[in-house]
Write a structure and sequence with these properties.
Layout: E1 19-21, E2 27-28, H1 33-36, E3 45-47, H2 78-92, E4 98-101, H3 105-118, E5 129-134, E6 144-149, H4 155-173, H5 182-196, E7 198-199, H6 210-213, E8 217-218, H7 220-233, E9 238-247, E10 250-261, E11 264-268, E12 296-298, H8 300-303, E13 307-309, H9 325-328, E14 332-333, H10 338-350, E15 355-360, H11 363-389, E16 396-401, E17 406-411
Parallel strand pairs: 7-8, 14-15
Antiparallel strand pairs: 1-2, 1-3, 3-5, 4-6, 5-6, 9-10, 9-13, 10-11, 11-12, 15-17, 16-17
Helix pairs in contact: 2-3, 5-7, 10-11
């Protein structure tokens, strides 16, 4: 699947929480919450400023985490699961205040974040809001926390948006056979999200799936939640991972997915599959807008060169590249052999393909191949193109992705 070039706008950061005393002007960072908790005598403390919209949707269906593979829920003990479920159930009905007993502000904040990672379908809340913590005098009784989530929409507006999302998702999923393999489903969803969404930091609702399915403009959070939402509906395990990523533009907050493909854990980053991220490469041209598949089912070694998960996430080892797109399609080279690479280019030319992708397993293999591929093998393949198609002068170009250990040749037939 190919798509047009898009303007790079950057990646949105996950939500954060600020702390402020109620009825006071002083503002504290999220790290200051523990200090606030040392205060006693039913002193109310709010975390994060902001108005909580009124409105509560009644009669909402509330999916249960029990019996499903909600990744972060499964890591909790029984007490934590009960608190998690109260938060989740409250969010599903747009509850203005969710009361939690015997829990700290930090723990409430953590569980709130896990619900948001597990439940991409909660598009009307992005995880922001406030906390009010009360502690009895002299510590004779346990503390309680009131969570006041912020909602972007409620009531009829929320229901209307939900219908729009469901219609778009159903239209998307109608294009994939329910009996397809895990790999086919993951690839389909990956190409759908990359191919149908414009990357835009200024997009409205860019921290949720409404921006993807309806607005068609989003950032990494929207991309990752949409992938999660669709794959869960297809019966493929997928969860949301937050952290940071380093590109030529620098380091910043980022989000991607952990999936299980045919029993193997691996990572998917649909945002970095978008051709917008290749615009910064020195040999990128306006007429090479193809999707990149380097992060379509990759392992730890590939991902952790640029991505760092948040430390509070417990993630499985992802040691297999077996289901990476380039491996599956014979474009991946664990060692360099000139004849093998030349044959790959000649096969692409014989088939009239516009490009040949050479993805190498690591920096050493890439460096070994690079000079000969670009100074000798490409010319030999071009002469073969001229002979096969009767062209007097052959033009070709290439993109040299050192950071991805990849060379892409572009062939012209006219």
């Amino acid at each position: 699947m190919s798509r047009r070039k898009k303007k790079k706008r950057g990646c949105g950061l996950p939500f954060w929480i600020l702390a402020a005393f109620a009825l006071a002007a002083a503002i504290y960072s999220r790290d200051s919450i523990a200090e606030l908790l040392s205060l006693q005598d039913n002193e109310a403390r709010e975390v994060s400023a902001g108005q909580v919209p009124a409105g509560k949707a009644a009669g909402e269906e509330m999916p249960s985490a029990e019996g499903t593979e909600k990744y972060y829920y499964q890591q909790l003990d029984q007490d934590e699961r009960e608190l998690y479920s109260r938060i989740r159930d409250g969010l599903f009905v747009c509850q203005e205040e969710i009361e939690l007993d015997g829990v700290s502000a930090e723990e409430t904040d953590r569980l709130y974040g896990l619900v948001m990672k597990d439940c991409p379908e909660i598009f009307w809340c992005d995880g922001s809001g406030s906390l009010v913590t009360s502690t009895s005098a002299f510590g004779l009784a346990g503390s309680s926390v009131t969570l006041r989530p912020e909602y972007s929409c409620t009531g009829e507006e929320k229901e209307a948006r939900q219908r729009q999302i469901q219609e778009a998702a159903e239209e998307c999923l109608a294009g994939i056979d329910s009996q397809a393999s895990d790999y086919e489903k993951i690839l389909y969803v990956y190409e759908y999200v990359v191919g149908s969404v414009e990357y835009d930091l200024e997009a409205e609702n860019n921290q949720n799936i409404y921006s993807v399915f309806v607005g068609k403009r989003s950032v990494c959070a929207g991309y990752a939640k949409a992938v999660q939402y669709l794959l869960e509906r297809l019966g493929v395990f997928c969860t949301y991972v937050s952290g940071t990523a380093v590109s030529q533009a620098g380091e910043g907050g980022h989000a991607w997915n952990l999936v299980r493909c045919e029993g193997q854990y691996c990572y998917v980053d649909a945002t970095w599959g978008d051709p917008v991220y290749r615009q910064e490469e020195s040999r990128e041209t306006a007429d090479s807008p193809e999707i990149a598949y380097d992060y379509m089912c990759c392992d730890d070694t590939r991902l952790f060169r640029t991505h760092t998960p948040d430390k509070d996430q417990v993630l499985p080892v992802c040691s297999s590249m077996a289901y990476n797109y380039y491996v599956v399609n014979g474009m991946y080279y664990e060692s360099y052999d000139a004849q093998t690479v030349l044959q790959a280019m000649n096969r692409s030319i014989a088939a009239g393909e516009g490009m040949t992708v050479l993805k190498f397993s690591g920096p050493e293999v890439y460096r070994e191949a690079r000079e000969e591929v670009l100074t000798d093998l490409a010319d030999r393949a071009a002469r073969n193109l001229a002979h096969l198609y009767g062209i007097g002068t052959v033009r070709y170009s290439y993109r040299d992705d050192e950071s991805l250990d990849k060379i892409t040749m572009y062939w012209e037939y006219e």
